[in-house]
Protein 1
Amino acid sequence: MSQVVAAASALSEWSGVVLAQSADPYDLTPGRAWSLVGAVVGLVGVVAGIVGLVRAGRGAPVAVGSGVVAVGVGIWVVSAAQGGPGTGYGIVGGYLDLVVGVAAVALGGLAVARGRRVAAGR
């Protein structure tokens, strides 16, 4: 097994290609940090969207805005990742940002629609 690792290391040095390094599970790498920021912003949007649904439109702009930001961060993290899960690039969190951001935008859109209905008296 060590011969395979040594051969891969020699090949990567010769070709100039850097192989994906696995990160410690508890290290906070820049990719993981940005994924965490996107997830927090997306969760704020989901909470604001739920509040907007309950209180007829209040918080809907916050939900839509933070959802768009979370999706943007998720796209950025996923596109910048050079390795898969466990490499420290934050790709799993980037995909989570995409899901939470879309949910926040959807809840914000529903809250806007409900706010318009309530304002129109329906």
Protein 2
Amino acid sequence: MCEYQAKHIQYLKNHLLVHKDNSEVQIFKCETCEFETKYAGALNRHLLNHKDVSEVQMFKCETCEYQTKQKGNLKTHLLVHKDISEVQMFKCEMCEYQTRHRRCIKRHLLGHVNISEGQT
């Protein structure tokens, strides 16, 4: 299938859902909006969007006014306060683009795929 490896079996089980069609797995749906996902954890994180800030734990940046309902978002935000020499940079092998965020390089690389497909 792919080269994904995990230290924990649960991570591997979650990853395997990537390779399955939605018709083959349980879909978790938000009762408030149209959001749906293959991942229970993703639904739980999503549900925080519908809660008032007074109902959930807020994660606050100690350097600026940023705050979020999700710990992972704070972890990502904290990178903006670090010097570029202190963080791992993700670099594009096809151009000069670089970023502090893995999700951004993945999205950027899709642009190169679309461009190359359009030229064929």
Protein 3
Amino acid sequence: MAACTGLPPFKHKTMKALHEMNNTQRAYEIARLFPQDLKALTLFIKSEIAHFKEKEEATRQAWPEQCSATADYWFDLIQSAEDIIAKFSVTLFRNPRVFADQFFYAHNAVFSIHCFVRYASSGKAPYLLRTAIALYFGEEEIVTIDFNTDKL
């Protein structure tokens, strides 16, 4: 005879296979697994925004001609990320769903993935978070700029 615990029966929710997940779903899984790191991730995204804005002119001059995305597109993504931080503020690191839905929806994911990968390789991310980022998003930065002084 089974003991009555008074708890409802466990409903197992299965996670989608990695190749079936979109970027928002992948980001949400990371945010759910590492809610304590959302503030650090948000602050890192904010620091990447500041870095690119500070180096905007040099970045635009050094932007690779053969790149499939333009510098204007890249800086539009940066502006979008900045707008998200201004609009949602602390909610981004208090709510994993808001974090994932805002930073990883549609084209916003391009800059956010870049920031995730840079954060993972920065030495600031805990080992398990670095591993999760590599699993879900890879280890390649979206944009790398060679600041060749001959062009500047």
